[in-house]
Write a structure and sequence with these properties.
The protein is 85% helix and 0% strand. α1 packs antiparallel against α2 and α1 runs antiparallel to α4. It has 110 residues and is an all-alpha fold.
């Protein structure tokens, strides 16, 4: 791979990582809103979908802890875990995203 090709690849990956970070923060906000709704209306199917997406993509950008938390949430939803347990998993995933992504997004924009 030439230096120019490598630089172009690195630039593209940095842009993709930034987009992933932005989307992940949006998904954390959405998970928080869905969790609040779940307390009275039951668990919406979006929770599993968001968890599945994060579990599959976070590791590609170096966020293995997000992958693990998202996979645990998806597993809990699929297994029919009690709502209180799923809400705890949502809260944990949301906290990890905010802890890990915010500094990463700021560093990528420097």
């Amino acid at each position: 791979m030439s230096a120019a090709t490598d630089a172009a690849f690195q630039d593209r990956m940095a842009k993709l990582r930034t987009k992933f970070c932005e989307r992940s923060l949006e998904q954390a906000d959405l998970l928080d809103r869905l969790a609040e709704t779940s307390r009275t209306a039951g668990l919406p199917p979006q929770v599993r979908s968001i968890a599945h997406t994060l579990a599959g993509s976070a590791g590609l950008y170096g966020f293995c802890d997000i992958t693990e938390a998202a996979a645990a949430l998806e597993d809990g939803v699929v297994a029919g875990a009690p709502t209180a347990e799923v809400l705890t998993l949502i809260d944990g995933l949301s906290r990890i995203i905010r802890h890990r992504i915010t500094p990463a997004a700021e560093a990528a924009s420097d």
